[in-house]
Amino acid sequence: MRASNHARLVPLFVGVISVSAALPARAQQPSTDNSDPSLRDYLSGNGLLNRGLYELAAEEYRKFLSEHGNHEKAPMARYGLGVALFRLKRYDDAVQQLAPLRGVKGFTYGAEVGTIVGQCHMAMQRYEPAAEAFESTVTRYGTHDLADDAAAGAAEALYLAGKFEESVARCQIVVSRWPASPLRERTEFFWGLGQMATGHYAQAADRFEAIADGGAAGPFAPRAALLAAQCRHQAGDLEKAADRYQRVIQQKASQYVAEALHGLALLLQQQGKPKEAGGFLDRLLRDYGDSMLVPSAHLQRGRAWFDLGNYDRAFESFAAIKGDDPALQDDAAYWMAKCKLRAGDYQEAAKRLKQAINRHGDSELLAEMMYDRAVALVRMEDHDAAVQALTEFRAKYPQHAMAADALHLLAAGEHQREHYDDSLKYCRLFLKDYPAHTLAPAVAFLMGENDFLSGRYEPAVETYQRFLSVFPQDPLIDKVRFRLGTSHYRLGRYDEATPLLAGLDDRGDREGVFRTGVLTVGDIHFQRGEWKQAEEELSKYLAAGLDAPSADDALLKRGLARQRQERYEEALRDYDALLKRFDKSAHRAQAVFERGQCLVAMDRLDDAVAAFDQLLSEDRDSRFAPHALNHLAAIAMKRGDFEESARRFSQVSRTADDEALKGEALYQKGQAQMAAGDYRAAEKTFAQYVDQFSSGARAAPAAANLAIAQSRLDRCEDALSAISRVEGAFRAQLTPDVLAAVGYEKAWCLRSLGRTEDAARAYRDLLAQSEAGTPNVHAMLELAELEAGRKHYEQAVEVLDRIWQYGQSQEVEVPADVREMATYRLGVSLFELEKFDRAAAVLNDFARDYPKSDLVASAAFFCGESWFKSGHHDKAAQHLTLVMDRFPQDAAFGPALLRLGECLATLQRWPKSEQVFSAYLDRFADGEHWYQARFGVGWARENQGRYQEAIEAYSAVVQRHQGPTAARSQFQIGECLFAQKKYEEAVRELLKVDILYGYPEWSAAALYEAGRCFEKLNQPDKAREQFSAVAEKYQKTQWADMASKRLAAATSAAPVPGRQ
After folding, report:
1. Which alpha helices (H) appear in 775-835, and where do they start and end?
2. CA proximity to 920, closest of 954, 949, 883
């Protein structure tokens, strides 16, 4: 059974309305003359009925009716008999007795008869006859006291009969006609049920909330409270639903708390909050172990653990379902297997999924079971079984959502079995049925591989070439190029193979494709500090094997190149390879030394000590020996003997007899662990202190350090709770420095939890506390970053200016990293505030003061942008050129190129502008702003008089782009032709601007220039047409004024009529 993701609607027991049937009036004392002895049984029946002796009353009434069926009291006796049978719950007999009375005109108890008949039908779950009986009663006795009872009964009966819209309509009538009826709350409740049943969840929720919040504490209020939450949930109003669930949960006495916990957990799961959902499910399972929802709660708890990646806990939850709910056994079996699959126990997963398939063949999850079993078999590399499983899946579920994935796995499985023709068949079928699927590139590549490995190189070439055309940006592109080149090679097409294989990254066996002298090229890059290129060339050289000449030199330099790129693990592998293979190398000492430096950078200090000790042991006279000693000293300083200190303090705390000394040692142990950064151990130590020495001298700072340790462990909720206790109980006992440290961690935790308003307030409180002392510049920086993140740039600048001023005045020590980040943030915030001159000055200082910063490229870009925005194009070009020259891999590189090209164009440095725009296109040919660069190339060429080349650039924009730039490009084509005196062609291209594009400024310009072309062609009438069109259609443009002047000049120059 597939578990629902929606709120589970609470089951309802719906009882019939309770209407007191009127009884016959109490019998009068028989007259002394006893003139009518036939009434004896009738009167006895009345008396017995009024005493609640319904069985005896029925006997008397039946006796009377059998002997005096035509007596004038017979209808009353039949009514009494019907009431007695009703009280005895013999509903069919009651209806049989009362039915004849429904047609008796003027019968005193006609309203009661109809109501009781309706009740009998309700009790027997015959809802449509019940509705008819109630409706008839309302129609015939609309003013009777029971009319509202009958109307409410009709509404309920219609609901129970599944006629929800009619039920809603009846409820509306009851409420409007009898607003003061004691049955109003019940009717309102069924009105809500009817709205639920017809899918009007929002309206139903409004109604249930009115019942729940009405304050009358009626019997329906608790149930309505839960239904309100469930309706909000079904309506998708998750925020209100959560609130309503919480209200039910808070009413601990409510019988619906379990349902509310379950519903809220499902809601949180929908919102992607499995951790929070798990908490409510745990509470349900803990507090409501006898609830019918326990199996479902176990299932949902498992899903929450699963979503959190805790597959062991998820498995336990699914296993807890056991046999409690047969409907969930298939879910439990599937998800237990899924846990094993995610945990990497593929064999167990496959076994469990097979068992689930066999046991739950009618499950809604059968398709998922079959597919995931196939996946497990694939991961086990049991390709024969996987192919069989996938074939069965596709046969049973050809239209399933995972059908494409299954087909891909099937093709891959046949490929792994070397059944290349079968794999090829499935690949073709996949690409036919799913050409746009995300797996299409992988399948297309696999299709080529099938041909390639079968030795069918010609079809492989066709497949790989088609791949390059259809998927030019796919990550498999290099493999495809390599395979395509190899296929050409195998076919003897060396010219085609060479350009495909040359220059590829070193991925796999590339032997034979490298050019000679690659080690030299690698060394050149190394000497220039071009670490990535050096690594690439050296790797190509080393791919030939370590027997190549100077391989030890190549290994050392590749290691250094990787080390400079902070890829220390890879660098270590190079140094280890050198030391293992070339134990007599001249580079051995340096390799040992550089290995130690890598280990320092990776914080593997023990290994680093061993490496430096090895160097000193092997070659104490080496030029690297002093550096090794320096590193050893730095490591000792970095350690500060804190570990040893903590160990000794631990010994003291365990063995000392003096309680004060024991407590102090325990506290100092925690301090040492904090200094060592061992916050987990520090937390444990301080917690022990607080527990054992709650009245000790160090209780306050221990509690503070406990909170700080929890914060450093990123356990922010725990830390905030601890900080709250510290502030409440120990504030007066703490020094300002400790209070400041606690305040800082409080702000940090609030920020980490996304509580930005609270975090900002905490930072400001912290800074206000430090006004009299040394300001916490780290807190100031973090506050500024928080404000900038909220786009409160004015506030950010205010704080950052203070940090900047502290740094300038040196009245407060501002660490270099804080100064660096604050300067950068200040510049960017000023830029966002459009204070471009100051932004440029600040960012210029940043680039000067922090040339090695990771942010220098971004700073240079924003500096250039600031100068550009303020009209200082020459200065802007200088900074943008810096980004272009030094940071080709930075995200700012592309935008910098575009803006630099624009600057150079404004400065009329046309060749350089063209060069920059061309560089952009070389790097970002398919980039988002390619058309701007292409236009820039055309504009630069046009201004250099290279009109035909400019037209080529403009044409590329026109052909591939829409928008103002395309319209401008079309206009410039016309202008280039005009400059070439190709007036007829110019007219054609200029008129296209007005025809093809809807940009008035360019339409006006184009028509005006077309008019000038006609003048050059000596066609004054057509010229006037263009000028007139400009003047009339585009009156608000500069072109309209110019056109009007042209028209005026043409009129004054026209020949005077008459003889020439």
Report:
1. 777-789, 793-809, 816-832
2. 883
Are 540 and 475 contained in the same domain? no
The verdict on residue 410 lying in a domain is yes
User: Is the same domain home to 443 and 524?
Assistant: no
Q: Which amino acid is at 902?
A: E
Nearest-angstrom CA–CA distance, 312 and 455: 47
The structural domain count of the chain equals 4
- Say which CATH number the domain at 136 has: 1.25.40.10
Helices (H), 320-470: 329-342, 346-359, 366-379, 383-396, 403-416, 420-433, 440-453, 457-470
Q: How confident is the model over 797-842, as pLDDT tens digits?
A: 888 878 777 777 777 788 888 888 888 888 889 888 888 888 888 8
Residues contacting 670, CB < 8 A, separation 6+: 682, 685, 686, 689, 702, 705, 709
Helix (H, G, I), strand (E, B) or coil at 88: coil
Q: What is the pTM of this model?
A: 0.46
Q: What is the DSSP string of 485-550?
A: HHHHHHTT-HHHHHHHHTT----S--TT-SPTTHHHHHHHHHHHT-HHHHHHHHHHHHTT-TTSTT
Task: Assess contact for 328 and 299: CB atoms under 8 A.
Answer: yes
Q: Can you tell me the distance from the alpha carbon of 867 to that of 103, in angstroms, rounded to the nearest whole number?
A: 98
The rounded percent of the chain whose pLDDT value lies above 90 is 50
- Is the Cβ–Cβ distance between 467 and 459 less than 8 Å? no
- Say if 46 falls within a structural domain: yes
- Six-digit token pair at 775? 């300001």
Q: Is the dihedral of CA 792, 795, 801, 803 positive or negative?
A: negative
Q: Which of 708, 637, 649 is nearest to 677 (CA)?
A: 708
Residues 521 and 494 in one domain: no
Give yes or no: residues 65 and 174 share one domain: yes
Q: Domain range for residue 438?
A: 381-499
The first and second tokens of residue 414, run together, are: 């046949």
Q: Is residue 281 part of a domain?
A: no
Quick check: is 944 in a domain?
Answer: no
The upper half-sphere exposure of residue 683, i.e. CA atoms within 13 Å in the direction of its Cβ, equals 15
